[in-house]
Amino acid sequence: MQKVSESNIKKEYQRKVNECIENVQQAVENSFKNIDAKLDELLNYEFKSINIIAAQQQQESPKINSNILLNFQDDNFQQQICQELTSLIEIKIQKEVQNKKQQHQQLIKETETQWENLIKTNDSQIQSNNNSQIIQQSSTLIITQSNLKPFNYQLIPQNSIKQDQSCYAIAVNKDFTILIAGCNNQIKVFEFIQGILKQVQVLSEHGKNIHTLNFMKGSDHFISGSVDNSIIIWARNKNNQWIFQQKLNGHTGSILCLLLNKNEDIIVSGSHDYQIKFWQKSNGWLCSQTITDHTSTVYGLSFNEQQNRLISCGDDNIILVIEQLELNKQWIVIQKITVEQFGCRLCFIDNNTFTFYPYGKDYINVFEMNNSNKQYIKTKDIPVKSGNIYDNSLFPSQYIKLKCILVNKNGQNVSLIRMKQNGEFMIEESIDFGTRNLFGYMTDDGQYLITWDVKSKEIQIRKYQEK
């Protein structure tokens, strides 16, 4: 772990000292005319009286020098006040600097071991981030993990709603008041009314099945991707109705996966046309770049925590690691990982770790960054139930940071896997739906798991419960 530079601490506190001194000097100069008469009157007292007063002040506050008044001279009284105050401020702040340094060093010492176990540090990342912020994030995550308990997700029967049409994509808004489902070529909008899920609107702009849905958290918008090769931006109007806002055309194959960055000014799309497209928000949305390194269908996409890297997987047994350049903000492929079996799902855990689920296998691969060459390599496997049955490409993997839960569909099962403090993974629950035709989504806070499967033909909601 790279420790905070002592010289940087000194520079920062010296800057604060100088700033404080300048402010005090300015205040003294501005108010000198107002107190001049009082100070002259004070200086006309006999020195004996002054010494008595000074002695009394020293008894009440030993930190104040009682001889200050005796050292002042009439001819340069204002300057001497500033000098004396400067001396006092510097002594006080020097002590504060020393205390802060000791506290900071102690904090580093206490968290260093836990931090090294939690994350294999990427040196280039540390150089570009504030070290104290990294320590704070590490401590917060460690505290969060230590408070986590075993859990399961319990079905809420009253919120299940019958849905005969296939629902390939599901999403919920940030305050869990609206649920949308891609039912064949329609988007059905549901609201939670007095705790019960009720359908309120149907949107029919897409010509073919809808495979992906994403709500925006900073505005009343969501995006949809379809087999008709298009992406649509939807907005809510003043009448509380969802309306078509913009259609993004450019792909020549089905849209299978969509991502939004945290700033919600970039959309990334993966398609059956082998392409990954970046859509930039300006006056509307425009395609700003296309990645063409895949040689078959693109099934999965995931951003890292820092949002400067993207991973993708497809039907070509390749995982792409794509990075955004600082200078021109263009995205470039920095690593191609060849895997033995193609996969449909992958998910960043943090900046240095991601998971990849090989198609039909009974394990999930874990990839971690090698600190020496900054390349991702497979380091371990997580055993899961799959039955080695034919799967489908929808229902993307998610990592819920607040609860340290990885959500992964494998065959007819949904595995809920907890990342432990030592970096190991443990399956907390595996839900068997009895069918591979299973689609769903977990809310960002990990409170609700929402699914549709062909066996129950229901949109089902399960709630997080600690044991």
UniProtKB/TrEMBL annotation:
| GO terms, biological process | iron-sulfur cluster assembly
Alphabetical list of Pfam families matching this protein: WD40
Give the matching InterPro entries: WD40_rpt (IPR001680)
Source organism superkingdom: Eukaryota
Q: Name one GO cellular component term.
A: cytosolic [4Fe-4S] assembly targeting complex
Record-linked PROSITE patterns: WD_REPEATS_2, WD_REPEATS_REGION
Keywords for the protein's UniProt record, in alphabetical order = WD repeat
Q: Where are the WD repeats?
A: 203-234, 248-280
Q: Please report the name of this protein according to its UniProt entry.
A: WD40-repeat-containing domain
- Name the species this protein comes from: Paramecium primaurelia
The organism that produces this protein has a lineage beginning with: Eukaryota, Sar, Alveolata, Ciliophora, Intramacronucleata
